[in-house]
Amino acid sequence: MKQQLIIPLAAMFQSARLVAEIAHHGRFDKEAATPLLSSLFQFEAESTEAVYGGLDPLQPGFKELEQQLSHADREQIEVPHMVMAMMQLAKKLGKAETRLQQMHDELMRIEEKLEMYELTHVNTISAIAEIYKQKVSDLSPRIMVKGDPLHLENPDNQSRVRATLLAGIRSAILWDQLGGSRFHLLFRRKALLEMLRNVV
């Protein structure tokens, strides 16, 4: 396995944890979300690290990943389930060139407006969320987000969840491109944990 694999994997776990925080507590950590949302607009990054602006912005993801790989958080199956679904959706999107191109074109249009609105502005989040709604939500497996209805019924939180999931799927596509698979997450946990500790 390539050591670079640990980077998009950590980003997926960071995305999934963010979604869980929104769903259960209504909290949206803008600092943790920024590198994930920014990755959607890195069309020609020089390296895997550059997709996220370095490794530091992914520290929450590295921490979450280490907890999951070391079984320190066995009760928390929600986050790894989301990550596995992201990987499955990335595989499907990888075979849907037209859909991927349409998503790319939409992201290019959003990027043009980033000078007016920052990445975590409600307008930007809503536009990214719409891409998920139009291009991903009809694919299976559907990512079922559980949480407090008070938070999940809030339209802004719905957009934050969709935008963050799209960022997670973008990382899953990168994971797939680097040779990652669900097999690695299921059966190569020790190797991934060692790789993680070498990177972090």
From TrEMBL:
<keyword id="KW-0963">Cytoplasm</keyword>
<protein>
    <recommendedName>
        <fullName>High frequency lysogenization protein HflD homolog</fullName>
    </recommendedName>
</protein>
<dbReference type="GO" id="GO:0005737">
    <property type="term" value="C:cytoplasm"/>
</dbReference>
<keyword id="KW-1003">Cell membrane</keyword>
<feature type="coiled-coil region">
    <location>
        <begin position="86"/>
        <end position="120"/>
    </location>
</feature>
<dbReference type="InterPro" id="IPR035932">
    <property type="entry name" value="HflD-like_sf"/>
</dbReference>
<dbReference type="Pfam" id="PF04356">
    <property type="entry name" value="DUF489"/>
</dbReference>
<comment type="similarity">
    <text>Belongs to the HflD family.</text>
</comment>
<keyword id="KW-0175">Coiled coil</keyword>
<dbReference type="GO" id="GO:0005886">
    <property type="term" value="C:plasma membrane"/>
</dbReference>
<keyword id="KW-0472">Membrane</keyword>
<dbReference type="InterPro" id="IPR007451">
    <property type="entry name" value="HflD"/>
</dbReference>
